[in-house]
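User: Quick sanity check before I run a bigger batch. Here is a single chain. Can you write out its predicted 3D structure?
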Amino acid sequence: MPLHAKHRLHAVLLLVLLAVAGCSGPEIVNAITPNSGYTRTRDIVYGDHGLKLDVYSPDHAQQAPVVLFFWGGSWQKSRSFDKSAYKFLGQALAEKGYVAMIADYRVYPQVQYPAFLYDCAQAVSWAHAHAAAYGGDPAKLVLMGHSAGAYNSVMLALDPEYLHAVGADPGWLRGAVGLAGPYDFLPITDPDLQAVFGPPQQWPQTQPINHVDGRAPPLLLIAGDDDNIVYVKNTNNLYEAIRGRGGRVEKVTYPRMDHFKIIALMSARLPGHAELMQHITDFVNAVTGPQPQGAAPAP
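Assistant: Done. Predicted structure follows.
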């Protein structure tokens, strides 16, 4: 059996054992995530509401690109994890030489739209102000998110209102990566989402696709054709809208990929990770420029 096939088999067997032991999805992938090669600084308070974020700094990082990640969960507490569930993602980004920041933000019923976007904007402001202390370059800041977090990231990139409101500069953003994001989902028929996004008269302004003007930083939109939670039309429609306005956008769609597998594959220990990560690293490196000599190399 080839060596890489053995590694994949060992990873699958370990996942099965952990599942039998009763571990949740994030617990499973975090349990097989390495603890070396980076420093994890937890529970850093940012913003006006006592929110927290974690930072994953590659060993010997110097002026490294910074990737600020927002998790998903339909903007609802009952469907969300938190930053601690994404150790596997922080490690994977750090392994590629990036300073990864994973931020919590308020969700329903504590807040409604657009409060969570202002929280994320404050995380951007913090990331820019403190990146250098963790080996990052504030001039190389990229947003990233999955599902609702992809919406948050893309909205901040498309609509400068939220960053302006917290005293941040939209020009700080070099780009944004959306994994399985909802960008064009009217009409809102789910009662829970109706509670999140308020009265119907404001729904048009909640849609990222309605803020496309061709002037946003570059976007990378990644989605799966088998996603029955956030349909791939969200990615396709936003991609076409940005292209139609002369904006900078790339799209990757995977056949037979569902909503949750696409974020699970951010784990460096799962088969399929390398292909997904290659798309992300190609994009991040292109929009931030080459890493300086002495920075942690991308394996």
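Residues 77 and 110 are 8 Å apart (CA to CA).

User: Great, the batch can go ahead then.
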